[in-house]
Amino acid sequence: MAVHVRGRRRLAELEAGERVDIKVVVARKHLQPFRDAGKGSYLSLWVTDTSGGMAARLWDGAREAASRLQVDRPVRLLGTVDSFRDSLQLNVERVEPLADADVRPEDFLPIGPRPPLEVEAELEERLGGVTDRWLVSLLAGIFGEGGLRSAFLRAPGGKSIHHSYLGGLADHTLEVVRFALAAGDYYSPLDKDLLCCGALLHDVGKLEEYRWDWTIDYTDRGRLIGHPVLGYEFVAQAIARIEEFPRKLEWRLLHLILSHHGELAWGAPVLPQTLEATVLAHADLLSGRAQQFQQVLQNPRAPGQAWTTYDRVLGRYIYAGEPGDQQSGSR
Ligand SMILES: [Fe+2]
Ligand SMILES: [Fe+2]
């Protein structure tokens, strides 16, 4: 019987048993020895496209294929989809490098759910909501003409944990602004201008922490310094260009950026020590954590699985429920 290969499919749409002919980027590769070392090695890959990532295994000719394939480069991959330990993986029969000229990075990087113009309009609205003249002038220098606005709107919010898609940094940032300002209504004395500005800038260091060419990954400087300190450095330099910027406002704003991870163990160089800082840290955690759950729930699951696979970052399984759970109200 002839096996039918379905039209252009994305990784997240694949189903167990399906034959595939797909264009993906090799995000990671390594040769893994078989349990019986005498049998040599197989090639273990992590491949990505706009919809996410999937493990892929090449059992035959692994050494030769490993030398031909480059990490962070697009390939055409032919094979079948297998179900393995409640996840899907690709059983590769053939894999061929694609010439960069035939494909564009945009064809492989995940993109966000919101139209870019809508996101930019929301950013504009938030910038317009800040009234303190010093913060207005700081934000105008950063997001205005000649600033980093277009990079900010395009950057990912992470490599894999949350908002890890093009436009994810802006989506996450605006979510944090919304959460922080809503929570800020309940507490006083709280400086909403400062909180909004801190929320808008809290992750600006991610522009240097990540690169987003064929795949999303850390830069060397990003991994070594981390975005809270990179963001602190960037905003401190922007403030230094504004004559007579009030010192205490500078400290309070830089404190928001340095402390936004909330706990020393979570990468904050200092703990939140102002009301604005603790509100921002919680808004940031809520946005990141809820999106992380959403991302895990969207990963492909074997048919009929009510639970996701164990998520090592969250340290738990997540219950996805069964079709109709929400509607039935059954006990
Ligand atoms: Fe952060
Ligand atoms: Fe954040």
Q: What does it look like?
A:
The chain has 331 residues and is of the alpha+beta class. It folds into 2 domains: 11-107, OB fold (Dihydrolipoamide Acetyltransferase, E2P) (Beta Barrel); 116-294, Orthogonal Bundle (Hypothetical protein af1432), CATH 1.10.3210. The protein has 12 helices and 7 strands. The chain has helices at 62-68, 116-128, 133-143, 149-154, 168-184, 192-201, 206-209, 220-225, 227-240, 247-259, 275-298, 325-328; strands at 19-33, 41-49, 52-58, 74-84, 87-97, 210-212, 216-218. A 5-stranded mixed β-barrel has the order 1-2-3-5-4. Strands 6-7 form a two-stranded antiparallel sheet. Helix 2 runs parallel beside helix 5 (168-184) and helix 5 runs antiparallel to helix 6 (192-201). The model is unreliable at 1-5 (pLDDT under 50). The chain binds fe (ii) ion (FE2) (2 copies).
Relative helix content: 25-40%
Report the CATH architecture of the largest domain.
Orthogonal Bundle
> How does the overall form come out from the CA principal axes?
elongated
- Which percent band covers the strand fraction? 15-25%
CATH class of the largest domain: Mainly Alpha
* Individual helix count: 12
Q: What is the chains' assembly state?
A: single chain
User: Rg, please?
Assistant: 23 Å
Largest sheet: 5 strands, mixed, barrel
The molecules bound to the chains, other than polymers, are: fe (ii) ion
Q: What are the low-pLDDT stretches, counting only 5+ consecutive residues below 50?
A: 1-5
**Biggest sheet, spatial arrangement of strands:** 1-2-3-5-4
The tally of beta strands, per DSSP, is 7
CATH topology label of the largest domain: Hypothetical protein af1432
Mean pLDDT, all residues = 92
Number of domains: 2
List the helices and strands in order. EEEHEEHHHHHHEEHHHHH
What structural class do helix, strand and pairing data support?
A: alpha+beta
CA(first)-CA(last) distance? 46 Å
